[in-house]
Amino acid sequence: HATLISDIVGDIGAGQGTFYRHFSGKREIVDALFERFIASLLAEFVAMNAEPPGSVEEYREASMGAVLRVVQVVQAQRDLAVVFLHQGRSIDAEFEHRLAEVFDRFVALAQFHLQRAIDGGFARPCDAEVMAQAVVGMALRHVDLWLAGRIDDGDTERIANELVDFAFWGFGPRDGAPA
Questions:
Q1: Contact at 8 Å (CB) between 15 and 9?
Q2: Closest C-alpha to 168, from 129, 145, 135
Q3: pTM of this prediction?
Q4: How many CA atoms lie within 13 A of 127 on its CB side?
Q5: What does the pLDDT read at residue 73?
Q6: Are the C-beta atoms of residues 99 and 157 closer than 8 Å to each other?
Q7: CA–CA separation, 111 vs 109, rounded Å?
Q8: What pLDDT does 174 receive?
């Protein structure tokens, strides 16, 4: 909030006139960066959408690959991720609403893939919307902890594996035998 346009143009070595030729103000640049960041996250699921997995193993592998690619995007753009995903609700009510819409897009994506897995016999029958909300909620909580510095960067792949395994197998034994 305290950043001035003169700070922004000074950092990039441009004049204020150049800035105002492209943006009407700070909020517009925040919105443009946010859209690009979110698009880069959603893009990691395109391959999974284009070629639907044909078995539970393929679903798990495709899901894990997409999640790990999202982790890499967040790591590469960590400063933006902190502002948007960890601190975004504090920007203003409009941004909080936009962030909620993005989370809903991830839920819809998860629900689509879960319903596809149910229909293909790769997942047990369940309320796909409720389960998608749960899976995305777990992921967002861990992303928030990570961006707050409460999870080490070196633990992200292990945690991603745990979350994907939980999404696929729950916490019971995989073969159905008692633990």
A1: yes
A2: 135
A3: 0.86
A4: 4
A5: 96
A6: no
A7: 5
A8: 66
Q: Residue-wise over 138-176: b if at least 16 C-beta within 10 A, else e? A: ebeebbeebbeeebeeeebeebbeebbeebbeeeeeeee
| pLDDT of amino acid 48 | 87
Would you call 72 helix, strand, or coil by DSSP? helix
Tokens of 54: 């044909």
Residue type, 32: A
Q: What is the pLDDT of residue 170?
A: 85
| Residue that is written with structure tokens 């197998």 in the block | 169
CA distance 106 to 41: 10
Q: What is the DSSP letter of 170?
A: T
Greater pLDDT, 52 or 150: 150
Alpha helices in the chain (DSSP H): 5-12, 16-22, 26-42, 46-50, 56-76, 78-81, 93-119, 128-147, 156-169
Give the pair of three-digit tokens for residue 70.
């999202």
Contact 146, 138 (CB under 8 A): no
Judge contact between 111 and 129, C-beta under 8 A: yes
Q: Would you state the pLDDT for residue 177?
A: 47
